[in-house]
Known about the structure:
Mean pLDDT: 95
Number of helices: 11
Radius of gyration: 19 Å
Number of strands: 13
Distance between the termini: 45 Å
Helix content: 40-55%
Strand order of the largest sheet: 3-2-1-4-5-6-11
Low-confidence stretches: none
Strand content: 15-25%
Shape: globular
Order of helices and strands: EHEHEHEHHEHEEHEEEHEEHEHH
Amino acid sequence: MAEILITGIAGFIGFHLSRRLLAAGRAVVGIDNINPYYDVRLKEDRLRILQENDAFRFIRLDIADRESLSALFAREKPRLVVHLAAQAGVRYSLTNPYAYLDSNLSGFLNILEGCRAIKAGHLVFASSSSVYGANTNMPFSIHDNVDHPVSLYAATKKANELMAHAYAALYKIPCTGLRFFTVYGPWGRPDMALFLFTRAILADEPIDVYNDGHMQRDFTYIDDIVEGIARVMDRTPAPDPAWEGAHPDPATSFAPYKIYNIGNNQPVALLDFIATLEKSLGKKAKLNLLPMQPGDVPATYADVDDLMADVGFKPTTPIEEGIGRFVDWYRNYYQLQ
C-alpha cells in the first residue's frame, strides 16, 4: 500500500515535489509513461535521483491505460493522490490536439475512477492559469468565471476541474485543483521560455519573443509551487456551508472541493525577465520580435489570497534569485563553463 501516489513523477513538478516529500520521510509511489514530448534523458536523470531513496518506488505506466491504472489503484490503495501527469503546452495543442484527449481527459477520468474505487482520502490535481483565457480583470481570482478558454490545453484543464467537481459531488471524493502560474526553475521543461532562452543565448542564436515583447507573466519558482502543493495536500477540503446555488462561487462548493491559484502574485514584463536572464548569463540576447501567437494571453497575474488564508503561504521567490539558480543548474547539468 502507498501513502502517496504521484502521477507525472518524472516531470518537472512531480520530481521536485517527490524529492521534497521523500526528504521529509514520506513514502512515495510514482508513475510516468516517460513520453518523448521533450528530452527523455532529462526525465530519466530526474528518476535516478529519486530512486536513490528507499522510500520511493517507480512504476512505468500511462494514465490513459485504463486497465493497468485500475489495477495499480487496487493494489496500492493510496491515501493521497497528487495528479500532475498531463500533456502540457499551449502551442503543442494547436498541432497535436488528440494527445490532449488521451492524457488530459481520458487519463484524468481514469484517475478519478481509481480514486472512486478505493475511496481515496484526497485528490490534488494540477490545473493551470491558462483556464483564465480571455479574462482581463487582474489579478485573476479563483472566484471569477473561467468559461472562455483560448486554447484546447486550457479547455482540458477547465474540463478537469469540472470532472473533479462532479466526482466530489457524486462520490464525496475530496478534490483540490491547483492553478499553476508559469513555473520555472532547475530541472525545468525544455519547451518553456527560460530553458529555450538560455539555450539560444548561450548558443548565440536569436530568441523568439512574441507580441513584440509586450507580455507579462506571473513567473513562479518551483520551490514555491512545491511548498504550496505540500501544504494543500494535507488539508482535505470540506463542503462550504455558505455556498448557494443562487449565487454560485466557482472556487468552493457544497461538495468537498476547492480551487487555489499558486502564483508569484507579481507579474513581470517579459523583456525584464529576459534582461534578468542576460545579467545572470553575462551575455546579451538577440531578440526576434514576433506577433502574438494563437492560444497565448498577454498577461497573467495570480490572486493568492485564498491560498494565504487557508494554508498560510504565498510564493515569494524573486526572479533574480530563481533565474540565478536555474542558470547555475543549467551550466552544471550541461557541463558548460
